[in-house]
Structures
1.
Amino acid sequence: MANITFESPVMGKDVTVYAVAGHRGTILSVAKAHKIPIPFDCGDGDCGSCVVEVKHLNPKVRYGIGLTEKEKELLKQIGKITKEEIENTEVNDMPPRHRLACQCFVRDEDIRVIFDGDEVLPAKKPAVSIAAAIFSGGLEINSLAEFLGYAVKVEAEAAEHFDDLAKDMEKCGNTEVAELFKKLSGYSRLHHDEVKAQAGELDTELYMPEEHVWPDLVTPEQTELWAGDPWLSKLDALKAALHGERLGFEFYHHLAETSALPEIRTMAKEFAKEESEHVAILEQWIARERH
Ligand code: FES
């Protein structure tokens, strides 16, 4: 028996299909045959867009899970398999939690397949289109390691920048704005650590971009504020921070739409989503401050 139950927030309800022996193929091919909307791009284990969680309903199943080096490597790159899982796979033949639907063959067992659905990029707003134009000006990133190198740099410098601003504000006694910058620095640091974790063993240091590659000679996400201004209002600080976060959003958004490499598009899409959440938080703070 091979009953496959698909579960996703993009489907109204779970769908169970029966994969007939001899015609099973991969999870992705079964999904396609039953019009289950698992997102996919390359169909060949190269991009990671078809990542799914697979639950084996019979806990005793632990044979020949068929995780190829290619799938393992990609799952590693997109942060969907841990060291322990790899070890468990290699030593005990235990299946990892996540698989690539285009690489994972359905076998004679019941499974539950959970996926998120293709999260469409947040729409660009007219207010940020200038930044979009800047980043379409020839910034070429040719590998996932290079992309992650850029992302590490962007987030590290944003965190440092907000820390400096917080210190300046504290010196001038503007503690309210100082607190705000500390919070923003915390967000960037968190994202920086996430990017580092995603990079795993990839050597991002090799690809740290120099200042001159950026159109304004500074990394995105930096505000236009450089020195301590004792009169800086909370509202102005928020607006400047919003400008920086929008540039960060544009950077990732541009790559998610234009990179020739599917794995970069997938990851840039995730980061753009994250930045759009920061933009939304800042917009809410600004709206509150105005009232
Ligand atoms: S569609 Fe499966 S890895 Fe690209």
2.
Amino acid sequence: MIDGTATAEPQTVSRRSTRFRRGEFHAFAGDGAPFVYMTPSAAVYRLDDASVAVLDTLAQGDCSPDELAQALRSRFPLPEVKEAIEELVRIRAVEAFLETPRKAPPAELPAPSPAALQRASGKRVPLSTLVMNVTSKCNLSCAYCYEYGEDRLSEASDKPRFMDEPTARASVDFMFAESGDQKLVNLTFFGGETLLNFKVLKAALGYARERGATLGKRVEASLTTNATLLRSEIIDWLVENDVGVTVSMDGNKEQQDTFRVFKGGMGSYGTVAPNVKELLARHTRRPVGARVTLTKQNLDVRSIYDHLAHTLGFWEVGFAPVTTSWQRDYAIQEDGFYDMLTQFQSLAAEYLEFALAGKRHKFSNVRDTLEEIHKGLNKSHPCGAGMGLMGVATDGDVALCHRFAGSDAHKLGTVHGGVDHDKQQAWLAEHHIATKTDCKTCWARPLCAGGCYHEAHTRYGDTHRPNLHYCEWIRSWTNTCLEVYGTIAAKRPEFLQQFD
Ligand code: SF4
Ligand code: SF4
């Protein structure tokens, strides 16, 4: 028998001239038990001994039913082998095929045409998240920042540095107009430093909530800030308006002050830490998270985590490597990625210990991946950019996401004139996972789907390119999360209910 997290349609197995071969999956262990992650369906199954033996036998080459039964008859009764084969065929870990051709073709996913994609998506994907760049200005000058650094995308010279209130209101109208039948919309404020334009941000959310009430839609609000400008009145407003907050912060004083400095070069830790403490003490209705940018110079994940999770007390801590061209001084090089992986794995092991003891751990990278595995996410595109998520620049131009906001080359429309849906659909079709030749045979593609477009643009100058520089990292990290998932599924399955 096979226990699984998803079901598959049964396939008919004809014994006559049928042969079997292995399907496309990734095998891993959880709590010492064998599991498979099914690439085509993104489902996870735990295998019994007979199923493992069938897959091991097929690893040597394809077999007829009789050959398979013959190979396994000394270890398992025939009905058990038969049942294992039927189950493996049902979940597609084994493919049944007729005598010829004998060789398994590579997994081929047909690239959809824009028209097909439009038909499949029921004309258009409704907008669920609008990221409003209320300013492109910042009071810090972090060298690695994509907005200010050497990798900047936006043509800022002719664009206002601050969004004005009419544009913010038009953005809110645009969000509702593009949200279709969705009853929940997410409005996220981004920058630059968002709080430099607090007045407009405040007005935009007030207007969004008012319009949402009239339209019968709920508005979830959140913002990202560097926390240098958090004052008591702002914290009051965040609490009263139930606004989720993510603080961009890189660790303890030494770590934070490596890059996160004011224009004059003074470190920001001394300003940020007391503000964060006040925020965490008072904003308790919504979890407040820290988002860390890892660089070559700041890669001690463990001590960053300990400081942010324990010393400061953030609800959760998430890490992302800096997005940059590999030549930059702060770019993480190959040995750095390995180091980062080892530290992520150690935190993931701690997360597992906590989960098995029924305790909450704050490492959000593992939590987010477990949720994706549990939900059986099978991505056609790496993220929602240009689909359910769009970014608005300070002048009202609409782009793929906040990181492309202000880039004319990645513009999809304006909040005044709406989205060019033909352009959007063509863009989505061009960036579908099926168009990424290198990803077609990769078992991690349901979760990775080629990776961030912004990163690809920064690294290779082309949003179409998969981020092949970190494939090994992605596959190792995904395998780690699968092992954590499998172990929890085996030992404390009720923990996974939070992801239902
Ligand atoms: S970018 Fe690499 S890891 Fe991601 S799906 Fe493509 S081949 Fe796999
Ligand atoms: S393109 Fe990159 S930065 Fe933009 S939403 Fe996707 S993953 Fe995030």
3.
Amino acid sequence: MISNQQLITTLQSILGMLELDSEDSLKQNTLSVCDYLGSPQFSIAVFAPFNHGKSTLLNAVLGENILPMDLIPTTSTVVSINYSATVKTVVTFTDGRIIQEEGTGLLQSYGKLDEIGHIKEESVATIKIYLPHPFLKTGVELLDLPGTNDQQIRDNLVIQQLLTADLVIQVLDARKLMTLEEKNHLQDWLWGRGVKTVVFVLNFLNFLEEEEQEEVQERLAIFASLFRGYLPPGVSNVYPVNALPALRGQLKGDSSRVESSGLTAFLEALTTIVSQGKGKQEERVTKIISRLQEVGFRKVRELEVLRDKELELKQLLKRGFRQSVANFRNWLSLPHLFCNYGEGLTLALQQNKFQEWYQEELGREVLKYKQECEEWVGKSYSGELGVENLGLKMQGSNYRDIATEYLTRFHTTTLSALSEYEVTALSDSEPDSTYQLQLLKGLLEKVLLQGASN
Ligand SMILES: Nc1nc2c(ncn2[C@@H]2O[C@H](COP(=O)(O)OP(=O)(O)OP(=O)(O)O)[C@@H](O)[C@H]2O)c(=O)[nH]1
Ligand SMILES: [Mg+2]
């Protein structure tokens, strides 16, 4: 079985070869799964429509008023909370710029929506807060997500974060339990992507009559049983927590209030789940692998068609090239050279006009044949062809003999250069698509084995 790191590299290489658009959901989901595989931390993501008390719940967990909470859509982007001995906030922008500051002041400027629910700073990519909290010190990362029913772009951000999380906490409003939208999100965003371990937190339960409270919990328990995933037996995945009373109890250090809010039981469950360690939600990995294979093998078939076309074209070009070389050779035959150029060359030598003759007659014709060969294979003819005088003594009385000797040497030299050129021109590499094809097939087979072993 290959290591997580090898799997990440393979998945990233496949993505590279598929050349998907950066907005493509398969690409984004794969990158999120790679983040999940590569992260050493146990990430807990809190997920719900806006105003359900996600930020309030996380503040209660942390025992501090850190995350912005309000009655209007508040959390603008994903805020991750990690461990560090000192409190600081790091904001990363989409252009790679980073600002960091001690404390959590930056969160108010960059992590909040404005009064009418718009993002104040469009270019914020991530906000990370570091706190010296003991729960975080155990290797836990908390993710406060923006509300889901606000803007498409933020929904997409939330989906990606859910895929990177080891545990998803869905906050529900007891007064309007499981809206159609919430059910759809659970179905499409989580179940459909292989994320099947969800802990449900029932907020605002204290707004209901006691009888209603029981009924709501029973109804939720049936639904929640589908999302137990890797939870150990004995650990429930439904927790009634009144987030605001829990936070107030925490801030005042009032443990009985914290307990009656439901937070104590919820925190105990979280600690148990975290202590089990990472790596139990492999289904999202197998799901993404099978999606990649589907798209990958489609690409393989496209590449095969392309390669066949390229090979066919190459054959055609080779045939044309061979014909041109054959024509060149015929032209170079001694009888042909003597017959066509013997007289002219003798005359030119007599008149001491070899250079002019060469350029107008022999040289011009050689150039024509040479170019014809080059055009077929796209490779320049490096063989020595411009052999104007071949070291001949041009003086002397028997010009006919000199011409015969010149044409004979020209014949031999040019023929041997042509043969060399023919070998190099034809010994070319496979088409590019063959290489791509082999690489992609190899990568897909590698993850296929991984998928099978999961
Ligand atoms: N009464 C009462 N109010 C609560 C409770 N939990 C949260 N609230 C209030 O509900 C409002 C919304 O809470 P937030 O924590 O900001 O909700 P959120 O889900 O993070 O909202 P977005 O960030 O906008 O998605 C705030 O005014 C909270 O004070 C609760 O248990 N009881
Ligand atoms: Mg919030």
